[in-house]
Design goal:
The chain has helices at 106-119, 172-175, 182-188, 211-214; strands at 2-6, 39-40, 54-55, 59-61, 68-74, 80-87, 90-98, 123-129, 132-142, 148-160, 163-171, 191-192. It is mainly β. The protein has a domain at 2-7 and 41-103 and 155-214. A hairpin with a 2-residue loop joins strand 8 and strand 9 (132-142). The longest helix has 14 residues, at 106-119.
Length: 221
């Protein structure tokens, strides 16, 4: 388990989503696009005592051989803001947000992300993917050797009952997606726990660090 600290200036894929208006209606059933996951916790028989899963509050993740699990931490607040599953060929960043009972905030979020990418000199195009409309992003980044490189990513907005799971894939999964790839399979195993607390649409759902690993989270130097 690794912890990474995030400054205020995070990547556009990691920025907070803007809220959308909440509508009062019955909760929708699980979308066909989630027939194989990710899951709402009420769609599973999740056991809190199951040691094969890591319960992070709004996200429950199943560790997999070949993937390193990292927690991104905001430098100022010290709060965990994202979960990253990283392997030798790529990674996926996971963030969960509250959504209205009836309606999808992904349309608004997607447009805002695309505008932010463009503002920062990158490109973002919409495509249809396994979970509906997705963004394919290319940003210029500085490589370890100091040279400028192009970093592709795919951003998914996966809607569930009163929540939105934003998943951003990097590396091979962004360029050569595979339904049974290690990263893709790990994403389908993710469980989202919306909880009963009031949250405005677009508000990040809280992530918590299990006591067993909290000691590994060192304060900033």
């Amino acid at each position: 388990m690794r912890f990474r600290r995030k400054s205020e200036q995070s990547s556009p894929e990691g920025d907070e989503s803007a809220p959308a208006e909440e509508a009062a209606a019955d909760e929708p059933a699980a979308a066909d696009s989630r027939a194989n996951g990710p899951w709402d916790i009420d769609e599973t028989d999740f056991d809190p005592d199951d040691s094969s899963k890591l319960d992070l509050g709004s996200l429950v993740v199943t560790p997999r051989a070949g993937l390193d699990m990292q927690l991104q931490v905001d430098e100022q607040s010290g709060q965990v803001v994202a979960v990253v599953l990283a392997g030798p060929e790529g990674a996926v960043e996971l963030r969960a947000f509250a959504a209205p009972r009836n309606g999808d905030i992904w349309d608004d979020v997607r447009r805002q992300l695309a505008a932010e990418v463009s503002r920062r000199g990158g490109t973002a195009s919409e495509h249809e993917g396994p979970w509906g409309s997705e963004l394919r992003v290319v940003m210029s980044v500085t490589a370890a050797d100091g040279r400028t490189a192009q970093q592709p990513s795919r951003v998914f907005g996966i809607a569930g009952p009163r929540w939105l799971l934003r998943a951003t894939m990097f590396g091979k999964p962004a360029l050569e997606p595979s339904d049974d790839g290690l990263i893709e399979s790990a994403l389908r195993d993710v469980i989202v726990r919306r909880g009963g607390e009031p949250h405005a649409p677009g508000e990040a759902l809280p992530l918590t660090v299990p006591p067993a690993v909290a000691a590994q989270l060192q304060p900033p130097g």
